[in-house]
Structure prediction request, 484 residues.
Amino acid sequence: IRQSVQYGTCISGDMDDPFFVSATSGGERKRKAAKAPVKGRSGGSQGKSGKSKRAVDEVEDDPDLFENEADEKDAVNLPVESDEEGEVETVAEKRLRLAKEMIARAESHERELQEDEEVSTAAIAHRLKTDLLEQKGSLRREVAEKLKELAAAPQHRAWRAHHQPVTCVAVGASDDFVFTGGKDGAVIKWSLASGKRLIEFSGMRSKPTDGPVTGHVGHVLCLAVSTDGKYLASGGRDGLVFVWDLSTSTLARTFRGHKDPVSGVAFRRHSHQLFSCSFDRTVKIWNLDEMAYVETLYGHEEPITAIACLDRERPVSAGGRDHSVRLWKVVDESQLIFQSGKATIDCIAQLTENNFITGGEDGSLCLWDCSRKKPSATVRDAHGPGIWISSVAAVPYADVIASGANDGSVRLWRCDSHYRSLSPLATLPVVGFVNSLAFSVGTDSLIVACSQEHRLGRWLRIKEAKSQVQVFTFPGLFSRALPS
Prediction:
């Protein structure tokens, strides 16, 4: 029976550490069924304040779908619903159908990459292996050595972005477009190849007393693009989450619910599930297929500053001045808490499902592992003594990390194969505050949003800086990078 810990205090058991609880009895682990989301549900038992008390679960891998081989054999011939009405297919038939669809997608992708009409078996095998490793969370691309050589003389270009400081940047699913948000309330779509402005979703000077809200009022603080490129999500100081339909370039939905500025948004990869975090100390989940609110996650004690997510339903959020990072196990209705001591955590990016990187006000760059409460590697004063790290970015399932500050540079780092150490690779010159970073794997580029001010305030201003989008291209960096 799973034992839980609420707000760092053991309910039962002899464990003193709120990070761990005892495993299930009898040596067997049961798979917890995912509960259907209910509108207005807060994700757990509610107390007087209406907030959920989510359990801090043990650090463990998700159990297998079947407890033993006998269960799996019995389930092979169980009927499951088919997409077509009136038809029923077994589990084995469904697996065969999905495998054929995966091979067909791989062949289609390889034909797009190759000029020849015939696609080699090796190319398809490589593609399938990459997809499988990515789904399992064990894919790893070794590109650090190549990046170290290319970073000595990268291709560089820049263009003026907003009338006011640029605060955030996101790369489109096709890697052909870049989206930026600024303190002028606008969200702009750019051509990554030419730097040409394509579409602008303008902000509003004030909330209308009557009539629809068609844009952000005040600063735009965060952006995220869905994997299929259908939706763009933006959050700002007005406490609203806007969902833009990129196929029609229109506002699809406005989500209300956060009581304070929305500081981060993140899509779960290969889905339309959206996570948003706010200064109101909550994380909210939205379903864009239904355009509906799902639930709210509680736990942070201070305003949340950033959020990130990969393939699994396990986002990670940075708690700012509560000195913690929380990994939310949404399906299990539990969370893991990682403490950074006295350091404020302001930015976060995921490397794998179990590893992530953070940066903070004290200038420390930290590498984390889900099996440890403390950072597995820490680079103190990564940009120099007293330099605040304002942004981090990582290539998912690769060994490359980027960090930005206001010291006039973007720094590139290598992560070792065991995710236990960080070593410097190169330094790229950038003037101003680096408010956001994003890697574009399809174009072998690093996109930098830099400005005169920090994205969250105006306590320091660098006069010589410009509000720009800067692109550093490293030709051939990610092309055909083989998984290790």
User: Anything to note?
Assistant: Confidence is low (pLDDT under 50) at residues 1-78, 80-85. The first strand starts at residue 5 and ends at 6.
